[in-house]
Amino acid sequence: MEARLNVFGNPFAGKFIKHVVSASKVLEDSSLPAATQELVKIRASQINGCGFCLDMHTKEAAAAGETSTRLNLVAAWREATVFTDAERAALELAEQGTRIADAAGGVPDEVWANAAKHYDEEQLTALVSLIALINAFNRMNVMLQMPAGDYRPGQLG
Q1: pLDDT tens, position by position, 25-70
Q2: What is the model's pLDDT at position 84?
Q3: Those residues with Cβ within 8 angstroms of residue 2's Cβ, 6 or more apart along the chain or in another chain
Q4: Is 12 exposed, middle or buried (0-12, 13-18, 19+ CB in 10 A)?
Q5: Environment class of residue 76 by beta-carbon count within 10 Å: exposed (0-12), middle (13-18) or buried (19+)?
Q6: Is the dihedral of CA 7, 30, 155, 86 positive or negative?
Q7: C-beta separation of 153 from 7 below 8 A
Q8: What's the number of CA atoms in the CB half-sphere (13 Å) around residue 41?
């Protein structure tokens, strides 16, 4: 499978992606825990069917020490006992923020309130921004049919 566009060899795409990646670097440096960030990226990517991002973020999480048990259970986080209450709140917000078009009122107040119990204002801002950013990456990669499977940890960073 080949991507519809070669974004890594296209000067315009390179310029755009450079700016989007710089936003992700700001989020990486936030006080939102790195493990939570990867779990959120994985869950949104599962919902959006983005193989490229799933390949990248599961491998990056594993390289950072995340367990295979937790990675394998992200899609079933509600039934899994391996996530903290804070991680569960972040995963719920990620789901609601990713499926925003499915709910007439957007993200329910109770989902937001639960996340706010576990994260301070900076972390909530980072979490919301991260959800928006991974959804943007997912949508680009799905439209371009970016192939998955060959990613190596650290390859793009």
Answers
A1: 999 999 999 999 999 999 999 999 999 999 999 999 999 999 999 9
A2: 98
A3: 145, 147
A4: exposed
A5: exposed
A6: negative
A7: no
A8: 26
Indicate the residue type of 18: K
Residue type (1 letter), 83:
F
Nearest-angstrom CA–CA distance, 41 and 13? 22
3-state secondary structure string, the chain? CCCCCCCCCCHHHHHHHHHHHHHHHHHHCCCCCHHHHHHHHHHHHHHHCCHHHHHHHHHHHHHCCCCHHHHHHHHHCCCCCCCCHHHHHHHHHHHHHHCHHHCCCCCCHHHHHHHHHHCCHHHHHHHHHHHHHHHHHHHHHHHHCCCCCCCCCCCCC
Whether the pLDDT of residue 141 is over 90: the answer is yes
Tell me the two tokens of residue 133. 């950013």
* Tokens 């992700």 sit on residue: 24
Q: Look at the pTM and tell me if it is higher than 0.70.
A: yes
